[in-house]
Design brief:
Helix content: under 10%
Distance between the termini: 142 Å
Largest sheet: 6 strands, mixed
Structural class: mainly beta
Shape: elongated
Number of helices: 4
Length: 882
């Protein structure tokens, strides 16, 4: 069944659409509905926890709008429009606005619901409080457990017992405390709202008396006091006005309280056991009503301080002085030191005084009698002397009981002023290039007498940066020197002083002081070079000087050293295109060996400026004349094809000529001929040459040997030798044999001839050892033998005894050197194929045979191929017996 609000909505919607058709379009609608006001008095009614504000909008309204809690009552759900009246803390009138946004044609897009919230004073209640409280919120009397609502907070209180209204809700229970509990009556009233009448409730608060542990009187002692007077202290004597019936507690477990009834302590014994400290003894007493008021305690403190001797303390500061402009970069470190007695290690409170400062307090740690800290410099505003004072020192553990014997100590910090050269003037005379320049500093009013280090730079034709010089100032003037090494170029140069340091105070300052001066040119020797050639003894040496630039007339000084010594001037030399020369007379060069010439000075005659010269030198030699070579007549073989290089003496230092007067030496590759040759000794390094020596050259020539007919045929059975081959030539006694036509190995006369070997025979001169140029070439044959005694053995014994271990046919290698042989067993299987270089050893060598390895004793068959003169093959048998 539809609810009434729904019918209302349908009804108003119909009217709305009819209205749209009848009314002109220029008339706008009321989109959020109409305003309304309601009053709610029965606050405790459960329905008031969810009051639907949509039910109170008058007329039709657009859905989808939002609610706002205009007065921040705190009870509204802005999404659902439900209001919890019980959540509103105070009675009164509140408004809530419904807003529809984003709809065209609305004359009014908001609707406001006003709600009068009636008073609610809660329910009558009773409570208790301990009388020691000085402030109690009376709202705590209310019982809000279960379904009881908390009262609204905008009511007013009245003390019925005293008949006095209460401002606010706070009450002072301690003001009404008595020996027994006291009950105070109150009323709480919330005033009328609209048609809702005011509400009032009665309440009671019972104030219970608290416990009182008394007022303690502490004991403060120094270790230097007479502690024997405190060996039996009754702690009750140290309390005033305490409730009786309490008990004492030893807070620091000193062992002095031994029972619930014990109240006496031995202070001297406590110090002996535990030393300096604060020792608490707490008295606790209970109230009459322990459910309302708590136990109360008071502590009597026994304070015992160990005496510390603060005598003989010294203060040092590092640094004790600085320049004023170093202040921001300087840390002043202060050291406090006690010696020889050292205070106990630990932290101490230090009271510091500093000139221009209000003083400060720090906690420093002393270790082995020493503590350090950084001196504050905020008040160092100008140069001068500042005093740092240690006003007091006290251990952080100090109980302020013992006397402090510290004596104030002071140290000074000096901030030195900064030098300046603002009024100074520089004067510099002209100076030759590379010479020292003296700089006069005058009118330096900002420099007091003393020693200074200045930093300067040069610019212009000469440029250096950051150079240091020492300046002694007296009566505001002084001088320093610019080294000539900085004045390498001629022309205008500017010196600028950029920095000055007072060597005595260590203070420095930047400077902006400069002066132009002229540097006269010296001869430029940076490209100077000299050359001088070595000569043979008795010749002048020409020295060429280059790299003289634009100079025209110069004086030159040079020094000779080494084999020849002396210092000489070569005056008034004309220079052309930067070059000149002079001669060193052979009269100054009388000794052979190395001589060094070094240029010592070049003077420009035009301006009389000279330049010393370093390391421009060159060494030349005065060479000796070589000795005439020792040589004798020489003999050569024609086969040597001798050339000049074969002559003795040998070496590149010798030159050979065809006559005493020829100017062109022979080439080492020129062939020698019989006749006269002339030799000199020549030093290729010095180009010096001796006189010539004549020698005679002879060439020995020999004929080619010849072989007699069939002289190359021999029978190997006779074991022919080299001597047998020589006997078959026309030079039996002088021929020698080699295994190669050139650089071969010489055979001895008793060496055996080898078949099919070529031998080379030369005629030899027995005196000189020369060989003939042409050789006799002979291919020796050792097969020129008859076969009259030829036979084939019928067996052999391959038993590795070194005798007859292979099947060998005597002399067959000479008679039939190309023979071959085959061995078969009785089954016709081929066992072996051989020749003169491969003899049968009694084994099966046929890899295709089923029989391999050593063959057994027995009869075997051979086939012998002679391979000479068409001699037919021979077959036979042999017996193998191991």
């Amino acid at each position: 069944m539809l609810k009434a609000p729904f019918f209302k909505i349908i009804y108003y919607c119909c009217l709305y659409f009819i209205f749209l058709f009848i009314v002109k379009p220029t008339v706008y609608a009321q989109c959020a509905g109409g305003d309304h006001e309601i009053t709610i008095c029965d606050i405790t009614n459960p329905t008031n926890t969810a009051v639907n504000l949509f039910n109170y909008i008058q007329g039709p309204y657009q859905t989808g709008g939002t609610w706002t809690d205009d007065m921040l009552s705190g009870g509204l759900n802005k999404t659902t429009g439900l209001l919890n009246v019980q959540a509103i803390n105070e009675s009164g009138t509140y408004t809530y606005t419904y807003t529809v946004s984003g709809v065209n044609g609305c004359a009014d897009n908001t609707a406001t619901i006003k709600i009068n919230v009636g008073p609610y004073a809660g329910v009558s209640s009773k409570a208790s409080v301990c009388g020691e409280a000085s402030s109690y919120n009376l709202f705590n009397i209310f019982d809000t457990s279960g379904s009881n609502l908390r009262p609204q907070s905008n009511g007013h209180w009245f003390n019925v017992t005293s008949g006095i209204p209460i401002s606010g809700s706070n009450f002072n229970p301690s003001a009404v405390v008595q020996d027994d509990p006291v009950t105070i009556k109150f009323t709480y009233t919330v005033d009328q709202v609209d048609t809702c009448p005011s509400q009032k409730v009665d309440l009671e608060l019972t104030v219970h008396p608290p416990a009182f542990a008394g007022t303690p009187v502490d004991i403060n002692l120094c270790s230097t006091d007479d502690l024997t007077k405190f060996t039996n202290v009754n702690l009750f004597d140290q309390l005033i006005g305490e409730d009786e019936g309490g008990k004492w507690h030893d807070d620091n477990a000193t062992g002095e309280i031994t029972s619930l009834l014990d109240s006496t302590i031995n202070v001297e014994e406590i110090y002996k056991k535990f030393g300096q400290g604060v020792y608490g003894f707490t008295y606790t007493v209970s109230p009459k009503n322990k459910f309302i008021c708590p136990d109360r305690s008071k502590t009597v403190y026994v304070r015992i301080e160990t005496y510390i001797d603060y005598a003989n303390i010294d203060l040092t500061i590092n640094p004790e002085k600085i320049c004023f402009n170093e202040l921001n970069q300087t840390t002043f470190n202060a050291t406090i030191r006690q010696n020889p007695v050292k205070m106990p290690d630990g932290d101490y409170v230090i009271n510091i005084g500093l000139t221009g400062s209000g003083g400060s307090t720090r906690v420093l740690n002393f270790n082995n009698g020493i503590a350090r800290f950084e001196v504050p410099k905020n008040n160092f505003l100008q140069p001068g002397i500042y005093t740092l004072a240690i006003v007091n020192i006290k251990s952080v553990k100090a109980l302020d009981i013992c006397d402090n014997n510290f004596v104030i100590i002071e140290k000074s910090i000096k901030l030195n002023p900064i030098p300046n050269m603002d009024t100074a003037v520089l004067n510099i005379d002209e100076v030759c290039q590379k010479s020292d320049a003296t700089v006069l500093v005058e009118n330096a009013l900002g420099l007091i007498d003393g020693n200074y280090t200045i930093t300067y730079s040069l610019s212009g034709v000469n440029a250096v940066a950051g150079q240091l010089a020492q300046l002694v100032v007296k009566n505001h003037q002084g001088f320093f020197v610019i080294p000539g090494d900085f004045l390498l170029k001629d022309g205008k140069t500017n010196i600028q002083i950029t920095y000055v340091l007072n060597n005595d105070t260590g203070c420095a300052n930047t400077v902006n002081l400069n002066k132009d001066f002229v540097v006269k040119p010296r001869p430029d020797v940076s490209k100077l070079n000299i050359t001088a050639s070595s000569v043979c003894l008795g010749n002048d040496v020409k020295v060429i000087v280059t790299g003289l630039g634009t100079l025209i007339d110069i004086n030159l000084k040079y020094v000779l050293s080494g084999g020849n010594n002396g210092t000489y001037d070569a005056l008034n030399l004309k220079v052309t295109n930067g070059e000149t020369f002079f001669l060193i007379s052979e009269k100054k060069l009388t000794n052979i060996g190395e001589t060094t010439i070094a240029v010592a000075l070049i003077e420009n005659i035009a301006n009389l400026c000279s330049s010393t010269v370093d390391n421009i030198k060159i060494t030349f030699k005065i060479h000796p004349i070589p000795l005439i070579p020792v040589a004798s007549d020489q003999v050569f073989c024609e086969t040597q094809s001798a050339t000049i290089t074969d002559l003795s003496p040998k070496g590149n230092q010798y030159k050979w000529y065809t006559s005493l007067t020829s100017t062109n030496p022979l080439s080492l590759a020129d062939p020698l001929v019989e006749g006269s040759y002339f030799v000199s000794q020549y030093n290729s390094d010095t180009k010096c040459e001796s006189d010539r020596k004549e020698i005679k050259v002879s060439i020995i020539k020999l004929n080619q040997p010849a072989l007699i007919a069939n002289g190359d045929q021999f029978c190997g059975k006779t074991k022919p030798k080299i001597s047998d081959l020589s006997a078959n030539t026309n030079m039996v006694n002088t021929i020698v044999w080699y295994d190669a036509p050139v650089n071969g190995n010489l055979f001895q006369s008793d060496d055996l001839l080898v078949d099919q070997t070529i031998y080379y025979g030369f005629d030899k001169d027995l005196n000189s050892g020369c060989l003939s140029k042409l050789s006799l070439q002979v291919l020796v044959s050792l097969s020129n033998c008859d076969d009259s005694n030829f036979y084939v053995p019928d067996g052999f014994s391959p038993n590795d005894d070194g005798i007859n271990d292979t099947f060998h046919i005597p002399d067959i290698e000479f008679i039939y050197p190309k023979y071959t042989i085959e061995i078969y067993n009785r089954y016709g299987n081929l066992l072996f194929e051989g020749n003169k270089d491969h003899l049968w050893d009694g084994k099966n060598h046929n890899s295709n045979s089923l029989m391999n390895g050593v063959v057994p004793n027995g009869v075997y068959f051979y086939v012998l191929y002679f391979n000479k003169d068409n001699k037919p093959t021979k077959q036979g048998r042999l017996y193998l017996n191991r």
